Amino acid sequence: MSVAVVTDSTAYLPADVVERYGIEVVPLYVVLAGRSGREGSDVTSAEVARSLAVRGGHVSTSRPTPGDFVAVYRRLLDGGADRLVSVHLSGELSGTWDAARVAATQVGEHLVTVLDSRSAAMGTGFAVLAAARAAADGASAAEVADAARQTAAATRTFFVVDTLEHLRRGGRIGAAAALLGSALAVKPVLHVTDGQVVALEKVRTSGRALARLVQRAADVAGDVPVAAAVHHLAAPERAQRLADQLAARLPSLTELYVSELGAAVGAHVGPGAVGVVVDPTPRSATEAGQRPEDPPPADPAEHVGD
C-alpha cells in the first residue's frame, strides 16, 4: 500500500525535507495591502513583517478551502497513492483542519485520514515528518497516522513575542492578557498546549526570555535524544543565538532546524518573535507513547479565543 502525506503551509518544514519525502503542502491564504495570496508563493514573510512594522498595519489570514484539499487529494489518489494521511495546524487556531475534514468526506473518508496536530509550526511539522518517514518505510496508513499522533502528542512549542497585540488582533489570545502585557512591559513566554496559545510565565527582558526558552527546551529534553526547531520572524540574529544556545545545552540533540515563520503564523506573532519546538519522540516511542507532563505555568494563564 502506498501512503501519501499531506500538510498545510504552517508546518514550516524545510524545503529539502518536503522534497525528499514527497510531502504535499496546501497553502493558507494571507491578506495584506488589499490583496490576497497564498502563503509562501504569493505573500512572503518579509512582506508580512514590513506591513506589521508600520503603525496601523494589518495582516489577516484565511484557511485553504475544502476545494483546495479535494484537488490535492484527488491528484494524489489518481497518481497512485492508495491512502492519504493529512496532518494540520491546531483546529483551535485555524479552520484548516476542518476544511481538510470536509474535503475528506467528499473524496472518501476510507481513503483519507485527517489529523489535528493540536500544535503549530514545527510542532505540526515534526508530526508530519514522522508520518512521512513511516510512509517511506512502507508502513500502513494506520501506522503512518499513529506515528504522527505520537509525535504531535510529545512535541512541545515555546515562544516569545515582542508584543501581544498581534495575537490579540487575530483572536489568538484574550484582550485582557494583551493589555496586561503592554501595561507591565513584560515579555511573556508562551506555549501551545491542547491546541491553544497559553501564557506560561512572564519575564522582563528579551535576554531573559531567550534564556527561559532554552531552559524550557532543556526541561523537555532531559538527557534523551531529541530533535528541535527554532523559528523567528524578522529576527535572524536572535534565532541563531537561540539555536547556538540549544546546541550547547542539549547534549543529545539529533536534528536542529532554523527557519523563518511564514506569513500565516507570522501575521499573528509579529516581527521579533522567536520560538523553539522540541520533539522528544525517541523517548515517547520507547515509553509506549506516554505523553510528558506539560510544564506548569508560573502564573495563571489565559487561553486563546477563536
Quick synopsis:
This is DegV family protein with EDD domain. One of its GO terms (molecular function) is lipid binding. The chain is α/β, with parallel strands linked by helices and 306 residues long.
Fold and architecture overview:
Helix content is 42%, strand content 24%. The chain has 2 domains: 3-28 and 63-153, Rossmann fold (3-Layer(aba) Sandwich), CATH 3.40.50.10170; 155-286, Hypothetical Protein Tm841, Chain: A,domain 3 (2-Layer Sandwich), CATH 3.30.1180.10. The strands form 3 sheets. A 6-stranded mixed sheet has the order 10-9-8-13-11-12, sandwiched between helices. Strands 2-1-6-7 form a 4-stranded parallel sheet, sandwiched between helices. The longest helix has 16 residues, at 206-221. It has helices at residues 15-21, 45-53, 66-78, 96-107, 122-136, 141-154, 165-169, 175-184, 206-221, 236-249, 263-269, 281-286, and strands spanning 3-8, 24-26, 29-32, 35-38, 59-62, 83-88, 112-116, 156-160, 187-193, 196-203, 226-232, 253-260, 274-279. Helix 5 (122-136) packs antiparallel against helix 6 and helix 9 runs parallel beside helix 10 (236-249). With 306 residues, it is of the alpha/beta class. The chain contains 12 helices and 13 strands.
